[in-house]
Amino acid sequence: MGAALLTTREGLEASLIVGIVLAFLAKTDNRERFRTIWLGTAAAVVTSAVAGGALFFTLGELEGRAEQIFEGVAMFSAVGVLTWMIFWMRRQARFIKRDLEAKLASAVAAGSAIGLASVVFFAVLREGIETALFLFAISESSTPVATGIGAAVGLAISVTLGVALYFGTRRLDLRQFFTATGVLLIVFAAGLLAHGIHEFQEAGILPEAVEHVWNTNGLVSEDSHTGQFLTALFGYNGDPSGLEVAAWFAYLVTALWFFLRPLVSWRREPAAARA
Q: How far apart, in whole angstroms, are the C-alpha atoms of residue 9 and residue 178?
């Protein structure tokens, strides 16, 4: 579920970028440049796949404490990137189309195929690298098969939505979509943070002042299907330490407060004030 959520969100962002680029070129009678865009997109996808493969391969060479430290660092990095992505998208979503079209207009005017391809290459590459990092972090709290299936399902959904939006066969309130997925991703990031702390405690870097706050494995085992689902999506731990619980709640409350506060304020404004 966590992998599907992430790849749906990241994949849709990449699909929207490609759709904006193609729509601009079609509108300006530059359809002959579509091939350049698809080459740039393919290059970004391949580069992202290579980076993701290198990340997973590097982990496979590590054992014991080094592996725990590496996993912890990767999870903390994923939390940082994920948090930045959520808040950046909320602030910049309305400017993405304008900025992309400005770069495209410059590249078309200069007649530069490389410049045109680079616009979509770097935009899609950012989404691809983020996805690789997130999937790596998820794989440490889920099975490779579950992660792979979830990622494939999410990508299929995102590509389908992207194509439907481009051809106008489906309407989607992007503001509501990114708000809803943003809330879910904040919950997911809180779980990654707690899991990263767990790895650092296992490695002896962080203390375990309160080793087990509770133990719910008798009710929902982490090894059960339900437990694995909750672990992948919410960072469920049947017997968490005090530091894990504190970090999970602190991050969740703080991030949700800053993420939802502007939306609540906007809804409370009188309609005349927003007009």
A: 8
